[in-house]
Amino acid sequence: MNDTTTHYRACHLCEAICGLAIETRGEEILSIKGDALDSFSRGHICPKAVALQDIQNDPDRLRQPMRRNGEQWQAIGWDEAFALVAERLADVRERHGNNAVAVYQGNPSVHNYGLMTHSNYFLGLLKTRNRYSATSVDQLPHHLTSHMMYGHGLLIPIPDIDHTDFMLILGGNPLASNGSIMTVPDVEKRLRAIQGRGGKLVVVDPRRSETAAIADQHLFVRPGQDAALLFGLLNTLFEEGLTRTSPLPVMGLEEIRAAIAPFSAEAMSARCGIDAIAIRQLARDFAAADKAVCYGRMGVSTQAFGTLCQWLVQLINLVTGNLDRVGGVLCTEPAVDLVETTSGGHFDRWKSRVSGLPEYGGELPVSALAEEMLTPGDGQVRALVTVAGNPVLSTPNGQRLEQALSGLEFMLSVDFYINETTRHADLILPPTAPLEHDHYDSTFNLLAVRNVTRFNQAVLPRPDGALHDWEIFVHLARAFAERTGVELKPTMAPEMMIDLALRHGRYGESSEQRLSLSALREHPHGLDLGPLRPSLAGRLKTSDRKIQAAPPVFLGDLQRFAETVPGSTDQLLLIGRRHVRSNNSWMHNYHRLVKGKPRHQLLMNPQDLNRRGLLDGERVKVRSRVGEIEVEVLASEDMMPGVVSLPHGWGHGRPGVQMAIASGQPGASANDLTDERHLDALSGNAALNGVPVQVGAA
């Protein structure tokens, strides 16, 4: 076959959902480029999109079910695999109870609509309260804040980046992340456009990140103390009369003003490491802007006061009149609206067995997973199902989790790699590759900076004998239901679910757009449904349809904040970092992404190196309460003194991993240093930033 075909679809490896033009000849990928006609990304792509070819052709990617036999793996048939899972999990439940089976779902789950629509078709049958996911190492404070304030954990206001005059970013590096709870392709041009129209970009970060490097102002902040800065900003806004009245129905603002009165800029300055004069000036500049956005992302979520940080971010936008305002933060109105079609969530209906951590939305904080496996007693976890996740590298104290995994009675992984986690599984079920199945971005359209929609058709045919993710879960459900005598509800293919959602959504059959799946197929470059607009008042899901600005559980956490004494300023604190060529732990096996200079070193300010008699480029040992790693250190003036930075997702040198390129430059795992006891006590989210460490010669 000599004919070439160009396919159009979005890349779904990260949140930006950039449009692609993929040229193929038969089943050979000839090129992957940005789609200049894409309604959202405007031709922009990042290096990850080009790596789709490496994923497709990766010889290490599993193509059939694999069963572990000691240290060896053998291929087995699908029917045998499904029967094995049903028998082993049913046996564990019958002997030890439903909660003896745990589930962990990784970040790629939300990048695959088949997992979104069908994973619970099987996992829900397990009836376990031991459900975990990457949410609690990443973004749980976002969801809990929206749940408490707006009545739904997915009703998250998004920065109106294309119309704002002032953007304040804390704990975010969108030039590396391509957004993150702000789906925003081509983000650098959008940020520079703020400056081009006379606006201002301010970044607060313990590292002068790629985004900070293009900002008008960068402020170093002490890791784990962003809440102190935010309290100082909010207090200044109240003290100096810089607030604006909001047309939104709001409850509790006066209560907040009184509660945070002790947390003035002067009182918070030493704690966050920023001069009180600078805090007050930042508050004045933010309030003076006609349209402003305060945006806090992963760096402020993954710390001991992560939920307070996200609450304060919302309050700063609210009291300056920038919540639900063009150029401020706005909620999306997507074609498939999960806010309208799903429950608003629940919090603290039960707690973890050992440490008493609260659930959110039916999930427990993943920091509790290892102890639930290792601690004997009624309800001890004895079997685990992992889905598209690698918690050994992505959750706190990975070495302890490894110890826990080795003692399980049975472990199933739905994944297409033998990685640091799945090497412990008894059975691995691999789905089709990204380009072999269709896709709809129900999650990231909900978080996008414009209302957009598209249906992504498969680029390559499904190989003979392969199953899509959703089909794997349907077969697992059928086998488990037959083994346990449960009657299954009927289901349908994901694309049929999306078609129904489109037809009955706000742009569906009763609207001018009349969207349906067939209509989207006629728009391979996607459809732009318009800019974000004020809509929050009509979308609130609180019982009284008012914004709850002062949830009692948040006010109750102020005492913990006030009583917490920051550690010595002589102590080194560890933070993470992201890179545009990396995505958590699973994108290090592709040559196009890992070529060039290594990017997994420890960054350290030269002053800190000199104090310890260390040299730029040498091997060092980094120690924390939970472990020790050895890594190369690089001197960097971009680091705040007293702070060191190590990217997460590395550490591929463990035995049994079958990812040749990743194992060739393994790096060290930051989560061999992070501490499962160091968390946000309010939400249970892991506190991966601000971890105390010591650094010395190797």
Automatic annotation (TrEMBL):
Top-level taxon of origin: Bacteria
Keywords: 4Fe-4S, Iron, Iron-sulfur, Metal-binding, Oxidoreductase
Coiled-coil blocks: none
CDD domains per record: MopB_1 (cd02762), MopB_CT_1 (cd02782)
InterPro entries listed in its UniProt record: MoPterin_dinucl-bd_dom, Mopterin_OxRdtase, Mopterin_OxRdtase_4Fe-4S_dom, Prok_molybdopt-oxidoreductase
Residue ranges of every copy of the 4Fe-4S Mo/W bis-MGD-type domain listed in the record: 4-60
PANTHER family: NADPH-FE(3+) OXIDOREDUCTASE SUBUNIT ALPHA (PTHR43105:SF9), RESPIRATORY NITRATE REDUCTASE (PTHR43105)
Protein name as it appears in the record: Molybdopterin oxidoreductase family protein
Species of origin: Stutzerimonas azotifigens
Taxonomic lineage of the native organism: Bacteria, Pseudomonadati, Pseudomonadota, Gammaproteobacteria, Pseudomonadales
